[in-house]
Amino acid sequence: MAAVQVAQLRGVLTVNGASSQHNSKTADLARSVSTRTVPALSFSNSRGWGCSVNASPLLLSRQDSRQNWCARPVQTAELRSDVPDAEESFHVQQHDVEAGDCAMQWKSYTGDSARVENPMLERLNMREMNEGDMWREECGVVGIFGDPEASRLCYLALHALQHRGQEGAGIVTSDNGTLHTVTGMGLVSEVFDQSKLAKLPGSATIGHVRYATAGASVLKNVQPFVAGYRFGSVAVAHNGNLVNYSKLRAELEDTGSIFNTSSDTEVVLHLIAISKKRPFLARIVDACEQLEGAYSLVFLTEDKLVAVRDPFGFRPLVMGRRSNGAYVFASETCALDLIEATYKREVQPGEMVVIDKHDGETSLCLLPHKQRKACIFEHIYFALPNSIIFGRSVYQSRYEYGQILAEEAPVECDVVIAVPDSGVVAALGYAAKANVRFQQGLIRSHYVGRTFIEPSQKIRDFGVKLKLAPVSHVLKGKRVVVVDDSIVRGTTSTKIVRLIKEAGATEVHMRIASPPITGSCYYGVDTPSTEELISSRMGVEEIRKVIDADSLAFLPLERLRGIVPDEAHTFCDACFSGDYPVPPRDLVKDKEELQKPVMALVEGYEGKFESAAIFKKSWTPPDLEPAGVTH
């Protein structure tokens, strides 16, 4: 029996008798990407966790809702960390574990159980204050094959997709049979610099920008994910959401799979690893046949780049070529434009496109054909106006939404303004149709960070005022039409109306360039629960009274569908109509999984993970050797 003791005394963690300094406030920390491979690590400072070759790290994770905890040896040196300032400490008891065992149960957890339910509640509340009343796309993906500057081009393409996710970013490259990865929290420009990009050699790459669902904004969830399995290594980046994730995860855990993240993307890697199909492409097909929901995926192996889109085509994925013949995949065409790649086509729903050195481009029908259900909100809000999404100009769509609003809900006014940025194009369309001047009545600040310091003397609507500044010269004494893309909870609209009236407007008429949102999205968008959506509880007139506007009108659903009458049935508008193409199973929007990694304990070096190279040759620490692994 090998005794394993974990204790925390005055910020010193003890593992197997060895101590390392650690901040006692650290919680929800670390993950291991691969369970059977050893990456080559590079460290730059002492604010994260590293691992030496002889280390045997332990991962504490919540086993179930009854506050039981388990610890297991992590069979890899690759640990990534994020250190949120969450007030949390852990006191666990000594237990014995058989050498080679993968898990053990702690008898009890002592701490504030209220805080255990969501140790990041404070951070989430702050995020709500900062970001207000909006929907957010969770992810953007990029894949490049055949360019000697792949990592730098990927960096630029991710920058073009920054609007799709600001919580974290990552890049993986393939070079001479080795995968190299860098991930980090923050904006693309904050995560990567010249030194980081220099550690990403190779002519093939995939990248990812992420916006997390509530409670999951930690480094362990930043993609791309890299894993080793029996036949090599694979990296994956995912845009979308799997509605049967909880079911698949439970089934995998029942058969022995251990999860290191709270991201549904990890399910895909497990399904590939356990598949009995050959070759690798057949494993992807086998895995995707078990997935339900939305997924636009890019995979990278030692010699291939694979792009996959779900049979319904919920989330966009486009393909382009550079002048040197390099292939480029991205969530939006704006990413192609920045790196001078020519748009060729969409990856079709249910299609798998494979790029390798030997066969070039190969297209395979992944799954049986279904009726396309592309997300209409890509055109309303998510995508940039200069992108082509689902074969149609986003700018053109939003301009027409504004024109329809002017036809359906005209009102006597002196000026038309927009809530920047997503309401601008629709406001231009409204102004043109109504023959009224469009002016900038609200100026958006592009320099508001994720947090701010509010003065002790409270300022009303402080968060909105930080972002939007009214132009009194445009608004004073005017009857104003304000065009916005949507109303979600109604809180931001209330503040905007008040802001404009305080600037001197005599009347404020809200025009919304989408139908009332009455249902949550389960296909890859960070949305509130249905109960939080104001339009699910109130009619238009009730909402008007709540936000204190002089009039309020939404884009009629039938007119939205009428813009592309022959293709209306190919778009998903479930958030407006309640008609979900794939019935959602995971109905809880704040889906912080029960088995959530919370702490990693490592004997040895303490540092910040920068990059890793995954080697084909497997390795595990002594006494943790899984059956069937040879050196």
Automatic annotation (TrEMBL):
<feature type="domain" description="Glutamine amidotransferase type-2">
    <location>
        <begin position="139"/>
        <end position="358"/>
    </location>
</feature>
<protein>
    <recommendedName>
        <fullName>amidophosphoribosyltransferase</fullName>
        <ecNumber>2.4.2.14</ecNumber>
    </recommendedName>
</protein>
<comment type="similarity">
    <text>In the C-terminal section; belongs to the purine/pyrimidine phosphoribosyltransferase family.</text>
</comment>
<dbReference type="InterPro" id="IPR029055">
    <property type="entry name" value="Ntn_hydrolases_N"/>
</dbReference>
<dbReference type="InterPro" id="IPR005854">
    <property type="entry name" value="PurF"/>
</dbReference>
<comment type="pathway">
    <text>Purine metabolism; IMP biosynthesis via de novo pathway; N(1)-(5-phospho-D-ribosyl)glycinamide from 5-phospho-alpha-D-ribose 1-diphosphate: step 1/2.</text>
</comment>
<dbReference type="Pfam" id="PF00156">
    <property type="entry name" value="Pribosyltran"/>
</dbReference>
<dbReference type="Pfam" id="PF13537">
    <property type="entry name" value="GATase_7"/>
</dbReference>
<dbReference type="InterPro" id="IPR017932">
    <property type="entry name" value="GATase_2_dom"/>
</dbReference>
<keyword id="KW-0808">Transferase</keyword>
<dbReference type="InterPro" id="IPR000836">
    <property type="entry name" value="PRTase_dom"/>
</dbReference>
<dbReference type="InterPro" id="IPR035584">
    <property type="entry name" value="PurF_N"/>
</dbReference>
<keyword id="KW-0328">Glycosyltransferase</keyword>
<keyword id="KW-0315">Glutamine amidotransferase</keyword>
<dbReference type="InterPro" id="IPR029057">
    <property type="entry name" value="PRTase-like"/>
</dbReference>
<keyword id="KW-0658">Purine biosynthesis</keyword>
